[in-house]
Amino acid sequence: MTLARWILPLLAIVLALPAIAEDRPLNTPPEGFTALFNGKDLTGWKGLVGNPKTRAAMSPDELAAKQAEADKVAKEHWSVKDGVLIYDGKGRMSLCTAKDYGNFELYCDWKIHERGDSGIYLRGTPQVQIWDPHNNPVKANGEEKGSGSLWNNQKHERFPLVMADNPIGEWNTFHIKMVGENVTIHLNGKLVVDNVPLENYWERDKPIYEKGQIELQDHGNTLYFRNIYIKELP
């Protein structure tokens, strides 16, 4: 067989790979993981009420009333289209898991527009930062350093090890592992946070809560999420 006869079939396979990847079903978790987002509706999610400290101070009736109102507002601004969870950028309402989590591994795809800003709260605590490092980054905030940082840390590292964001408009993938107070994060396959404690933003004199909800932070701009998978760890 000539060299050309070997190369042409191989080239056809390589060119077909992107199409094959695009055809993979969305929101289908890998083995051992559970899908937090079913790709169809907001089942398993709720609106944000206060923060861990203020929620703990509420009576059950007060919390239930505030939760009902928060759920109503969330459904006005969060929607699902073509297997993607979308925030319309209006109002101010983060979306939270109905269940609390302790130790876990989490995968999440996300996408923002130019100058977008968001984050993922772990155990109800800010946050794994999401923002735009490409278009006029605010260096005073460290935007040029990229997404994936534990931005509200004061004592421990708060910036990512490398800038790993894809160009704006493209999908990004977080792999977040939290055990105890320590967090390790890969963004698009690159290590950006290496076993760093997440500090308690709400009560600085206390360690991070043992359990809490995962939150997709609204920061007043359009957001996109998909393929949100979790595996609880002992």
Low-confidence stretches: 1-22
Number of helices: 3
Number of domains: 1
Rg computed from alpha carbons, rounded to a whole number of angstroms: 19 Å
Which sequence of SSEs, written as H and E, runs from N to C?
HEEHHEEEEEEEEEEE
Average pLDDT level? 91
Shape label: globular
- Describe the biggest sheet? 8 strands, antiparallel
Short description:
The chain is of the alpha+beta class.
Account of the 3D structure:
- By secondary structure, this protein is α+β, with helices and mostly antiparallel strands.
- The protein has a single domain, classed as Jelly Rolls.
- It has three helices and 13 strands; from the N terminus they run αββααβββββββββββ.
Could you give the topology of this structure?
Layout: H1 3-22, E1 34-35, E2 45-47, H2 52-56, H3 60-77, E3 78-81, E4 84-88, E5 95-97, E6 104-112, E7 117-122, E8 125-131, E9 172-179, E10 182-187, E11 190-197, E12 215-216, E13 222-232
Q: What keyword list fits this structure?
A:
3 helices; disordered N terminus; 18% helix; five-stranded antiparallel beta sheet; eight-stranded antiparallel beta sheet; globular; 234 residues; Jelly Rolls; alpha+beta
